[in-house]
Amino acid sequence: MSGLAYEATGVGRGTLWAVNNGSGALYQLLWNAEAGQWLPASDDDWSAGKTLRYPGGGGAVDAEGVGLVGGSSANGVYVSTERDNAASSVSRPSVLLFDVSASGTELTASAEWNLVDILPTLSANGGLEGIAWIPDADLTARGFLDENTRAAYDPARYAGHGDGLFFVGVEGTARIYAVALQEGGAASLVATIDPKLALVAEVAYDAASGLLYAVCDEACDGEIHAMAIAQSGPFAGTFQNVASYANPAGMDDGIANEGFAIGTCSNGVAPTFYADDNETGGISLREGLIYCGAYHGGDDTLINLLNINDFHGRIDGNTVTFAGTIEQLRAAFGEQNTLFLSAGDNIGASLFASAYVGDKPTIDVLGALDLAASAVGNHEFDKGLTDLLERVVPASAFPILGANVYEKGTQTPVLPEYATFEVDGLTVAVIGAVTEETPSLVSPGGIETIDFGDPVDVVNRVAGQLTDGDEGNGEADVIIAEYHEGSVDGVKEGASIEEEIAAGGAFARIVTETSAAVDAIFTGHTHKEYAWDGPIPGEDGTRPVLQTGSYGENIGQVRLWVDPLTGDVTAYDVRNVARTSTDDGVLAAAFPRVAEVKTIVDAALADAAEVGSQEIGSVSADITTAFAGGSYVDGVYVPKLKDGAPDGRDNRAAQSTLGNLVADSLVASLSDPLRGGAEIGLVNPGGLRNELYYGEDGLITYAEANAVLPFVNNLWTTTVTGAQFKAVLEQQWQPEGASRPYLQLGVSENVFYTYDASRAKGDRITGIWIDGQPIVMDAEYRVGSFNFLLQGGDNFTVLAEGTDTRDSGLIDRDAWIAYLDKNKPVTPDFASRSAQITGVPASIAQGQTLSVTVSGVNLTSLGAPQNTTALVSLTGSDEVFDPIAVVDGIAQIDVIVPADAPVNTELVVNIEPSGTVVRSPLTVTGTLEPTDPGAGGGSNPPAEGDLTPQTEGAITPQGGTTVEQGQTVTITVGTQYAGQTVEGWLFSTPTYLGSAVVSAAGTASFTIPADMPVGTHRLVVTDSTGAVIGWVYVQVEALAATGGTAESLNLLPWAAGALLLGGLALVVIRRRGTRTQP
């Protein structure tokens, strides 16, 4: 192929237009994902390309270059030519326009611009090669100079030329000519450009950066020059060289690379496409990356920083593309300018292919990629300090930095604090520090001999040392901080750096207190994704703050432009680059480092497949961690998708089917007294590193099971009191400043607890049941878990206070796999093992309205049902309540306590369809009856004048204002009166309805006397002082209207008849107590 042009069509990866100068054909190339290649369109007309003809249908076009106006073929495709091959000895330097929508296997040009009159004399083989179009708006905005006028280019000077100029590369002169193609085949030369190459074989324009690219073939080893319009100096207004690029890595410099196109710019990078001129069959394409953001000129030195964090041994089908992305970014911005770094947790919690051989494949992959340095992460301490120093460090081809890791009781570092590198003449220092929470995140037994200091303080100390002017203790021009610590939320959660700073904690200190001498901040640990501009303490301006997420899904990139004389950063940009989708084989062929990575990965996967492919269990459905960002579809929880796969796993603040299943397995494995006699299983959410997916057949392999629990923890048991167990559950709310404010423990199926998150810290757990019985605070319970957790990991320090702590002799992997094998298939349990319940009173009387709220019952593991119904009962009562709707996981319960409710009862709420059973103890007192006339109470009714318009409507009868004789009516009084005693009255003759205690929901209940006259009355509620809270008109109807009898209304039969006949006036005089009607 001799020329390329890229069109973003919005379909797939777009279209590449290519011309072949041998056949004189135009090709439409489309990306074939299955083949991993760009291939000719399968349409019959295009499958072999379309032969090009001159206007009139004759000739054999020597097609050398192809270009688009506005990036769209809808405007036609422009082809640059050297000659008509039917008359090959005659120069014909023309631009031809073709309508590619025309049918057939040949295309005839609709227009020709022969440039022979405006270009120097050219040989038949020295004419037009590449062609690119630049819009007038870009040229005028940058002050492009018209060599005819020696003034700024004025598009109006060239009538009928459209909206831009064509830039054609000429082989014979090694120049690029800006020409206006005008109506009727006329053309005008606007400017001549010298790209300073021995030959111009292709021309391309990148609108995002405003750079014009000139490509040389094998005459100069495929070198590419980038040119920008100079904004000042003697060459202002002309295109001048600003950068040069070698051939793509892996391409033979002897190949005649004549095709070059730039794809769509995204996040500052665009794909680049290269085609050779019949060196490899004429249709060989290669792909790379190029920077396409705003160009930074001047003499500043570019430092290209590539970063990862929390890779966690991801040796799988994505590892080669992960490596390829690094190499693409390294090649795009210069090997000599690039440092590849890590913020830690490269190993630990790894996939099976890496984990089962001690993460050696991961260490080897990072070495093959020339990782320059890494901060130490907490997971590097998973097997203890000795393993890190004696195995991991010697096996790593890069320094592992930990400036805040000290020998116990000293300030003596046990790891290097920093490393320095020479990058294009500048000294770059990298300081590493790990989260201060590390002692709570790894097994304490492995780190007994070391301390962890404040990471910000230590970075500032080392940064000060590196900038104090003392060469004896190290000096640096540029300083990078690698913190294995990060923000609570990232961009996926909708967070901003301002919000994260306001939240306080470790990340806020990193951003706002890290020394101004530090030029860029990389973070990790929390698996969040962000690329932010952070404030510089004590200075104006900002600096980059980045975390990539995790698992190599993104490569973080920070580019610093540094004044080489002062070491000052004059400009920077920061972003996360998603892992490339380029085929593994293509990447391995292009980049030697990737080829080495592929060899390592292929061998590791093959070895792991042999061991890990053994089937050890099965599942009846997906059993997963909690997900974030998904939704309930048709009543079932489904995840959001990323690249067609579930996204948002590992929400450690929520209960999960997987966490609870692992807790059940711990009890099963450790219940034998010889194994420790566990009664309760507990699981820390961070210990669950993969899912149990049903897949096609529900079978679970050794590797899949191992990936769930990859840490190789020992299984321990310990004894705690009921009070200590409550304290453990309270510690799910983490200490102030922790990276994750809440960690949800998985609990075994015999445990249920309730909580109220609004209560004070340490008092949020409101009830615990073990084996269906309320926990006894001074009783002892055996807890089984991982040694990590029972040693106080994840800040569950109370567990470390347990007694009779024993090692079972089992490791988590072996016990887990044995459990899955014995219990196949395992089934997800969607019943929540905890719930939030609020509004439960200290006591409540029979007849009062119990108003409580139950929430936190919807799980977000895959396949979890959306709860819809709550069935309420009181233990010991025969009362049957109506079902209550559960909306968004919340059930608002308002029921009247029945007369048969025992004093000590339990509120029981069955949540369906998950099968969750929520319990809460309840103390019931006797019924609050209306005070009997003459028996005390109701002696001080409100005066008629107290029933003012201002208090009318301040109370509301539930169920409406029509009531029946003898009916109990619930009145909404207001939550501000909750717990207060109020009295009820009916007017006009003041009739006392009794007293009631206002519920937490702000309601009180009163019974209408059975002999209350029918008709309109005023219902009044007063507070304990007799002041009117509110009143409302109600209509009292006879009970007979709903099937009652005359006797039930306390009327004589003849009086009832009189009422029914309606022909007599009935006068009733009522007296209550000693007070007479006024």
Specify the helix fraction band: 10-25%
Rg value: 39 Å
How many alpha or pi helices?
Answer: 17
Distance between the termini: 110 Å
Notable traits:
1078 residues; disordered C terminus; eleven-stranded mixed beta sheet; 5 domains; alpha+beta; single chain; six-stranded mixed beta sheet; 35% strand; 17 helices; Purple Acid Phosphatase, chain A, domain 2; 5'-nucleotidase,  domain 2
Structural account:
- The protein has 1078 residues and is an alpha+beta fold.
- It has five domains: 3-128 and 201-228 and 239-291, no CATH class; 301-596, Purple Acid Phosphatase, chain A, domain 2; 631-822, 5'-Nucleotidase, C-terminal domain (5'-nucleotidase,  domain 2, Alpha-Beta Complex); 852-925; 944-1061, Immunoglobulins (Immunoglobulin-like, Sandwich).
- Helices cover 15% and strands 35% of the residues.
- An eleven-stranded mixed beta sheet has the order 49-48-47-52-54-57-56-55-58-59-53, covered by helices on one side.
- Helix 4 packs antiparallel against helix 11 (592-612).
- The longest helix is centred in the middle third of the chain and has 21 residues, at 592-612.
- The radius of gyration is 39 Å and the shape is globular.
- The chain starts with a strand and ends in a 17-residue tail after the last helix.
